[in-house]
Amino acid sequence: MSNVTKLSDAIKFALFVGAASSAATVSAVAQESDAKTLDRVEVTGSRIKRVDAETTQPVAVVTRADIEKTGLTNVFDILNNITSSDGSGLSTTTTQTNGSDGSQQISLRGLGADRTLVLVDGKRWVTDLDGTVDLSTIPVAIIERIDVLKDGASAIYGSDAIAGVVNIITRKNFEGAQVGVSYGQTEKGDGAQRSADITIGAAGERASGVVSISYSEQKEIMAGDRYISSEPYYECTKYFQAIYGASAVTTCPYGSGSNVWGRFNVGGNKTVDPNANLSDGYQLADTRAYNGFTDAYNYSPVNYLQQPAQRLNLFAAGRFQVTDNITAYTRVNYTKRYSNQQLAEVPVTASVAGANGPQWKIGISSAMPFNPFGVDINTWNHRSIAVGPRNPSYDYDIFSLQLGLEGSFEIGERFFSWDLAAMRNDGQYDSKGTGYLNLQNLKNAVGAGGYDAGSNSLYCGASYATRIQGCIPYNVFGGPTLGLGTQINGAAPGRTVTAAEVQQMINYVSYTQVGTSGNTTTGYSGNLSGDLFELPAGMMSFAVGFETRRDNTFDQPDALVSGGFSSDNYSEPTKGETKVTEYFAEITAPLLKDVFLAKELEVRAAVRQSDYSAQGFVGSTFTTNDPGSPTNAMYGLKWKPVDDLMVRFSMGESFRAPSALDLYGGGGESFPQVADPCRSNVAGTAWNTPANAAACTAAGLSGPGGVGVFQANAQIRTLVGGDANLKPEYGDTMTYGFVYSPRFIEGLDLTVDYWEVDMFDLQTTLSAGNVMARCVGTSGFTPDATFCANVDRDAAGSVNSVRTARTNLARYRASGIDLGAVYRWDAGEWGNFRFALDTSWMENAQSFNSTSGTWNSSEVGTYTGAPTFEYRNVATIDWSKGDFNVRWTTRTMSNIYESCFLYCNDYDGSGRNNSGFYAVHDLNVSWNAPWDARISAGARNLFGKEPPIFTNNTFAHSFDAAYDLPGGAYWYMQYRQDF
Q: Which residue range forms the structural domain that includes residue 375?
């Protein structure tokens, strides 16, 4: 038995909890703590420093104590358990074969990570190229608390704050030293996670500082090590065996046709027979018809289910009191992150016709020495098993520096505070990948060649005398070993392919891919807040300020990728920058106080004006653009009719400005299945879509016979990139609800908030078919020459490629209710109990169909590549007595459904695949030792519930990352020592 398995067995009594449990306290938590002091503080969602921490908007608070009770070692996992999180942000759980670079992102309300603003101490953090924050760059060891504003806040914070704001507050007044270590693993003994950190702080009469060093590591989990993800679709092979018999089906036919022994279109799809005797060389008799039920390649087991990653973080913050009323402060953070991805071996999809892109116009010569067919092969597939899996690795360096001055002063009885700050955030993202193919070399290696008896060597070229130096024929007919030990055609009997020659083949066609990208943000800000004048109910307060930022972004793909000679999808470089200058103002006016039905009545308003400019390269052309100058306002009201009840309301405008990547992102290659609206039928004798005949004829696309143009392939090469003409996305948000703490039930706090968001001018990437239809004026569109410029056709009218840039066309609206309840009970000698419930219920989620001019059906309760839950719940029970604490957490998700594909449980008789009600339990047990230590152990998903199965809209792994990983519980132990 392995040590890690022993650990699993040894600690099955323990811990973990969704961090969202603390979110149920919402404003009530802040009410218990900050409001008891007389210090003025800046709370999340407002620029006005105030004593009362309650605002007109709902803020969920995750304290450091709550985090320590979860056993979680990264910010993403903590936030992903807040019920307003939709679970769709990127993570290191890889549920698709292409995976990610190891970044971790948070998405709220189903609006996407790019519409959730992430701050650290109220300031913007380092972003990736797309403007989102990688949460893995923020170490848990330096967090004091996390505030989650569940409302739009662009009038306060500017761009991106549409779905909400995550504000991570760091430790500042820490004194002493603290060391922490943790270790965890899955029930199956894999996917280990370990972390260690040390934090040292000191404070003097005028100065204070804190330094923290932390390291975390996560090991991989292979998709093949979990039954649910062991083939492209769940139980695919079993499904077809039930239909055709076990002897007829040995693999999932929905695997890859780029298979181990190749697929060659020679009068029909043929493959080399794995059982053939190749001792006499490669002959036609050694081939047979390709059979998808036995020959398709199962690529799933090669991929990661959980990516390996390592993170080292250095954090330091300091404060120095320059005078009694002026303080200088600084914060610096450096993160080094390594992560890896593993993808199945390169699928070669070559066609002389260029069906999969111009770089894949590679044919196999009849004179290629291993060709058993003796004819030129113009369309063929191959799986580069001998080269090995594709292994992109990522080496990221993230740096953040903030410098500032803050102070306060009084004029008469009026209090004022101010701050000036400068910041620089820099991300350098380097990548290196092995297992990729140099397509120019591959073209040489499958072209004409032979065996030269005089030199006893294989060569590429028309003759040995004119051979291509360094090239050796690449035996795509040789299976997983490239024909090691098989007879060479044209050589004397017994002259077989050697191990050295196989290695030469691999070395010649493969290469190491290298790319680099980066994003740098520099900014300055200033803020003044204070009291304006006395109203009957108190002082009217204000805040005014400015912010300016410049974001520089570049992306330089690997030279062969951008040159079109790599097996990786073609991608163009990116270079651009955006600049913004913003001015904002906020006021809070207390109107009534301590009168009948108005213990407190306060109104609030804020406005922000933003002026954007941008410049960058569109292809090789330098251009300047005006992304817009949005003005956003918000209004709020807080009313306490009685001491026990607070009613709150807010409404406002939010926006998201396009990033440099949105504007100037180079095109990336894909091959979707698309039907040219002007195509002829397969025989070319009549219009395949006669309704389009008039529009296509008017566009000059009637084809040689007047019946439409020829479309050679179902898949059309598509380049997806940026659009320099993009404008901001806009959103209208509204939230209203109440906080109720009845005096007749001591210890009870209730919060209920209804929210709505309506977004328009959203960025969307039109499909290639949509672009072509808009160009010629089919499918109800008016002909638009702007879109025709994005369709590349040859002289006969056939489509070569379509460029599908982003555009501001989409709309989306959603609404729901958040419910929070907390009850604290002092049970005397039985200890103290705390019961909490955090619930998010989604009422509606709809996108707008721009073609029909109507709203699509609500997506609530459906699965279309990401779950749209009707509700998510996190319920916790805390018990503490003396030095012991136990927390039990139950996380639940509502049933969602998708249309059936292969797998279908059809629980409700509707002909749909249902996830079913999903509930898992976490347990946390901790002990505060007398030597100033805290020891805890626990489990997430204590009873090892498996995630539900989805097959129609997931690719390769048959479950969604919003759920727990398959494979049972995750067990862990932690130790933290104070000095």
A: 257-300+344-391+434-512
